[in-house]
């Protein structure tokens, strides 16, 4: 890890500051490195920074802790995703209380085109488990990333069903990466790291204490395009996730259940209060999320262009633009294709001459219609 990233990591080990203050420090100082080079007088001018915090910034302990954490991450085969990293979940960046550091084991694309969170009660009924299995099976054709919380009940059913149907699945944990909770799910968690992954905002050694679970739920809600509640009691973590998802303007779905049954009450209330779409089958998700239309348009667009005469680099760029579906800056396209900007500019010009690509203001590009 270079000094710039090490400094950014070190900010997370300053006692008494949270994710918001980390971002605030970088914003006011220009970079993480500049934070540690600032004088105490300058630091005290930053909102939220008092004398004790300023002193903690200026001693060497944050860097020592950062180096210790780096060693632990290597030991546990864990990647550290900083807020500014390209692999950090982009959907999370749009929420105010997003974590500024994530710990990640796995191979899933956290910025997959379609991400669905499936949550529910820990006391899942046969009805809930069977519906979850059928739902995940129906999502297979959309190649979604399935996110849940690795908990008993609906969560673990969602993870296991995703593994069964060859879908990537990520478990968001309320503990450090060295504490798999519940321990009964260790084997599933291990399997997920080769077909999805494990994700947490907590440093190594953090135990899964009760207050951390509601905070974990905001990551589940923030990572997904749609949040599906399969079964829930009148109160519980699944309903907290649904409330958070609504505050993030995410689409929430709920499976209706039998009136009077304790683990149907939460879902029925979400539907009754217009806080969730009624969910009876995967078709409902496809319709509300407009996936069928998007897939049809993508196929139509692919058919409209003959790419058989393109060279390998041109095909790579064309297919990346097709996948992205929106105008994209040349710098971002360069990162996604791993082509130098100078070479990419020439390829884009050739594709523009062939009528396949349109150049837009601000050095952005999209497929021609």
From TrEMBL:
**Domain Helix-hairpin-helix DNA-binding motif class, which positions?**
9-28, 41-60
Pfam families registered for this protein in UniProt: DNA_processg_A, HHH_5, WHD_DprA
Q: Give the record's GO biological process terms.
A: DNA repair; DNA-mediated transformation
InterPro entries, per this entry? DprA, DprA_WH, DrpA_SLOG, Hlx-hairpin-Hlx_DNA-bd_motif, RuvA_2-like, WH-like_DNA-bd_sf
* Any one Gene Ontology molecular-function term assigned to this protein's record: DNA binding
**Coiled coil ranges:** none
The entry assigns this protein to a family as follows: Belongs to the DprA/Smf family.
Q: PANTHER family in the record, alphabetically? A: PROTEIN SMF
The entry's protein name is Rossmann fold nucleotide-binding protein Smf
Species of provenance: Fulvivirga imtechensis AK7
């Amino acid at each position: 890890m270079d000094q710039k990233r090490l400094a950014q990591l070190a900010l997370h080990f300053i006692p008494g500051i949270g994710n918001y203050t980390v971002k605030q420090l970088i914003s006011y100082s220009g970079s993480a490195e500049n934070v540690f080079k600032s004088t105490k007088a300058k630091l005290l001018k930053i909102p939220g920074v008092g004398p004790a915090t300023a002193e903690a910034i200026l001693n060497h302990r944050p860097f020592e802790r950062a180096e210790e954490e780096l060693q632990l991450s290597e030991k546990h085969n864990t990647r550290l995703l900083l807020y500014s990293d390209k692999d950090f979940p982009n959907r999370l960046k749009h929420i105010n209380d997003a974590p500024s550091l994530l710990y990640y084991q796995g191979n899933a694309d956290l910025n997959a085109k379609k991400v669905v969170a499936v949550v529910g009660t820990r006391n899942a009924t046969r009805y809930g488990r069977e519906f979850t299995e059928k739902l995940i099976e129906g999502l297979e054709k959309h190649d979604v990333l399935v996110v849940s919380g690795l908990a008993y009940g609906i969560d673990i059913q969602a993870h296991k069903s995703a593994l069964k149907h060859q879908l990537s699945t990520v478990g968001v944990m309320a503990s450090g990466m060295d504490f798999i909770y519940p321990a009964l799910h260790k084997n599933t968690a291990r399997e997920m790291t080769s077909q999805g992954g494990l994700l947490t905002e907590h440093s190594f050694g953090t135990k899964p204490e009760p207050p951390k679970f509601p905070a974990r739920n905001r990551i589940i809600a923030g990572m997904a395009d749609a949040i599906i509640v399969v079964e829930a009691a009148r109160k519980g973590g699944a309903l907290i996730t649904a409330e958070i998802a609504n505050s993030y303007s995410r689409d929430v779905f709920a499976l209706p259940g039998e009136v009077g049954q304790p683990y149907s009450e939460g879902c029925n209330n979400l539907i009754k209060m217009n806080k969730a779409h009624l969910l009876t089958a995967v078709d409902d998700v496809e319709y509300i999320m407009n996936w069928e239309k998007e897939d049809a348009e993508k196929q139509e667009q692919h058919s409209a262009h003959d790419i058989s005469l393109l060279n390998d680099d041109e095909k790579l760029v064309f297919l990346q633009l097709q996948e992205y579906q929106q105008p994209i800056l040349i710098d971002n396209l360069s990162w996604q294709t791993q082509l130098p900007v100078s070479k990419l500019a020439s390829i884009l010009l050739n594709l523009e001459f062939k009528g396949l690509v349109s150049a837009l203001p601000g050095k952005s590009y999209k497929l021609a219609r």
